[in-house]
């Protein structure tokens, strides 16, 4: 006789006692146990009561009633366990999981307080929810099993950016084991939510041995709404058994169906699949085929398309180059850029090197609008930037001299191959960078391009938030002369990014900047202050001046960074800090802000009293 199911239920109920009964709503672990209990309930009434209790516990209810139900189910379960011999003899407890009920290896390690805000954000509407969800993802909170149903629910969120973020980031992070859940709950006549659901399935892939999921996918491909059909068909590329169907669908009258088939065929990458894509690329579906190839570029497919691309670029048609002719030329070339966007191929490298370095050999460039010509050369520059060869760098430098729009590509490539001092000398020690007063439009554009490029290099993205590089990395990879150059150009954000101890101009710059900075600059001011080698009392005084110059009649909130810094002022200055902050309260209009300041003042006074 097995008691595994009863013990598993007991473990889940114990978890809810610790985490809070509110988390029982739609709890996946409990809902997974309910049908097993109900099955046993056909033979033993006590299991039926447990199943009903679990259903009530996970269903809609107010918090007080849910807490009572948790106690009721626990009491009944304890009674069953105390007489388990007589009860379980009537039925064999089933412990094997069905394949489509497997969940990813998740935990329940986080507290209810940590999860509640995310659950509310994904259950309600209103502003600020996107930031809560993305922050929770960065913190790893979605690895908690209790947030899994909310992650699934996010696919239908009324705010599309949350739904798209869930499809792009949250759900794929669970791995392939969630694919059966995604497909079992799919409405094949649905809309955007189902497309997102299948987007995740396509990224994760369906286990070839999961016959049930593949059946559901094929059913959606055959019977679903047009966009659902397209998305479902696109998921079938890795499965050879469906190649004939994919080729058939690629000839369908409906554009959406052909689009899905092309995407699947690009992944399939068989000889027949490549031939069909090649034919589509040369016909009316050129862009559709190009997008499919661009998603999964294969060396064999690039081999087939490169000769066509080069032939078009070298072709010099006679006749007047009017607006219509330029648009026609671009329409012929654009699909190649789409198909090659993420491709790496030695022949593509050869072509881009020659194209960027010897533009006159490619007459088609002169038959394009200026913006379209730049788009082609930027594709070439982006490819060469990551090539990391002397030849590629030389071509990029020539492009940079031709037009500052190509400066970022040359800069990124140069940084990988030069020492920090050599990089500074190349971009600031000579040429446009050394000019304090830019005198021509080209030099203005060059300096702006250089500053924008530095911004991209010096701030990394953590999720959707820009963060400064670690101090040791800054000091190791960047020549200290950059900081003086940026102070001269009064770029606070970049000064903050490269701020480091030992620069005598940094503190005076911070003091001057504080007089004209707005409240959005607080982070950059304080980051610069942290990095300089001023003493703690000086930093404290600047912090207090920053607080005193704020317009408290219009200020309605305080940055968390500001409040944390106030609480960390030196002990011997805690009393003075409290007095200066207290003098500001009379001008504060908003109660929440007033309460925040009063909390800080109270904490500082307690510290002062304990010294």
Main features:
611 residues; mainly alpha; 34 helices; 2 strands; 64% helix
Give an overview in words.
By secondary structure, this protein is mostly helical. Among the domains are: 1-96, no CATH class; 304-417, no CATH class; 551-611, no CATH class. The chain has 34 helices and two strands. The protein has helices at residues 4-19, 28-41, 45-58, 63-82, 84-88, 112-121, 129-138, 148-153, 160-170, 179-184, 192-204, 211-223, 226-234, 243-249, 255-268, 271-281, 286-295, 299-314, 323-340, 346-357, 370-385, 390-402, 407-417, 420-429, 441-458, 471-477, 481-488, 492-498, 506-514, 522-531, 536-548, 560-567, 574-582, 591-610; strands spanning 459-462, 465-468. A two-stranded antiparallel ribbon has the order 1-2. Strand 1 (459-462) and strand 2 (465-468) form a beta hairpin. The longest helix has 20 residues, at 63-82. The chain is flat.
Short description, anyone?
This protein is an all-alpha fold. It is built from 34 helices and two strands. It comes from Paenibacillus lactis.
Taking Cα atoms only, what radius of gyration do you get, to the nearest Å? 32 Å
What is the CA-CA span between the terminal residues?
Answer: 66 Å
Q: Could you estimate the helical fraction of the residues in percent? A: 55-70%
The average pLDDT score comes to: 87
Q: Can you tell me the overall shape? A: flat
Q: Within the largest sheet, what's the order of strands?
A: 1-2
Helix tally? 34
Low-confidence stretches: 85-101
The main β sheet shows up as:
2 strands, antiparallel
């Amino acid at each position: 006789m097995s008691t595994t199911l009863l013990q598993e239920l007991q473990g889940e109920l114990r978890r809810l006692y610790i985490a809070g009964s509110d988390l029982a709503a739609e709890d996946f672990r409990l809902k997974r146990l309910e049908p097993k209990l109900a099955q046993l309930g056909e033979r033993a009434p006590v299991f039926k009561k447990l199943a009903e209790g679990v259903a009530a516990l996970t269903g809609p209810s107010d918090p007080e009633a849910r807490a009572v139900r948790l106690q009721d189910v626990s009491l009944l379960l304890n009674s069953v366990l105390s007489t388990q011999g007589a009860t379980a003899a009537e039925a064999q407890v089933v412990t094997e999981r069905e394949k489509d009920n497997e969940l990813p290896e998740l935990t329940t390690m986080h507290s209810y307080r940590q999860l509640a805000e995310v659950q509310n954000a994904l259950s309600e509407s209103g502003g600020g929810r996107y930031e809560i969800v993305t922050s929770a993802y960065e913190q790893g909170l979605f690895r908690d099993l209790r947030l899994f149903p909310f992650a699934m629910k996010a696919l239908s969120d009324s705010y599309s950016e949350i739904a798209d973020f869930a499809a792009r980031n949250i759900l794929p992070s669970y791995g392939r084991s969630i694919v059966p859940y995604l497909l079992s709950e799919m409405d094949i006549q649905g809309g955007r939510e189902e497309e997102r659901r299948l987007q995740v399935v396509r990224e994760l892939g369906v286990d070839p041995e999961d016959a049930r999921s593949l059946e559901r996918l094929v059913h959606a491909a055959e019977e679903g709404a047009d966009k659902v059909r397209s998305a479902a068909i696109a998921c079938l590329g890795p499965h050879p058994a469906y190649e004939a169907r994919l080729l058939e669908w690629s000839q369908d009258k409906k554009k959406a169906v052909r689009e899905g088939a092309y995407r699947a065929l690009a992944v399939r990458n068989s000889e027949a699949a490549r031939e069909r894509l090649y034919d589509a690329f040369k016909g009316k579906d050129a862009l559709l085929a190009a997008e499919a190839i661009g998603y999964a570029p294969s060396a064999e497919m690039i081999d087939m398309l490169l000769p066509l691309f080069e032939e078009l670029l070298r072709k010099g048609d006679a006749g007047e180059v009017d607006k219509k002719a330029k648009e026609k030329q671009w329409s012929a070339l654009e699909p190649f850029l789409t198909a090659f966007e993420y491709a790496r191929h030695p022949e593509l490298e050869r072509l881009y090197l020659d194209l960027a370095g010897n533009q006159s050999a490619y007459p088609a460039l002169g038959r394009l609008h200026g913006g379209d010509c730049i788009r082609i050369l930027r594709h070439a520059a982006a490819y060469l930037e990551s090539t990391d060869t002397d030849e590629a760098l030389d071509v990029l430098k020539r492009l940079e001299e031709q037009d500052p729009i190509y400066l970022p590509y040359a800069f990124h490539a140069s940084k990988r191959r030069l020492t920090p001092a050599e990089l500074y000398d190349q971009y600031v020690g000579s040429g446009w960078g050394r000019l304090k007063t830019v005198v021509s439009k080209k030099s203005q554009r060059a300096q702006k391009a250089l500053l924008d490029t530095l911004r991209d290099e010096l701030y990394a993205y953590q999720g959707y938030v820009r963060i400064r590089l670690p101090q040791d990395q800054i000091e190791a990879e960047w020549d200290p002369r950059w900081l003086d150059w940026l102070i001269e150009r009064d770029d606070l954000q970049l000064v903050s990014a490269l701020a480091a101890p030992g620069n005598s101009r940094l503190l005076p710059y911070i003091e001057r900047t504080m007089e004209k900075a707005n409240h959005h600059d607080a982070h950059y001011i304080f980051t610069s202050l942290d990095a300089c080698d001023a003493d703690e009392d000086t930093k404290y005084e600047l912090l207090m001046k920053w607080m005193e110059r704020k317009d408290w009649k219009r200020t309605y909130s305080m940055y968390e960074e500001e409040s944390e810094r106030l609480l960390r002022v030196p002990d011997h200055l805690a009393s003075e800090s409290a007095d200066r902050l207290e003098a500001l309260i009379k001008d504060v209009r908003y109660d929440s802000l007033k309460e925040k300041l009063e909390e800080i003042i109270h904490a500082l006074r307690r510290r002062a009293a304990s010294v």
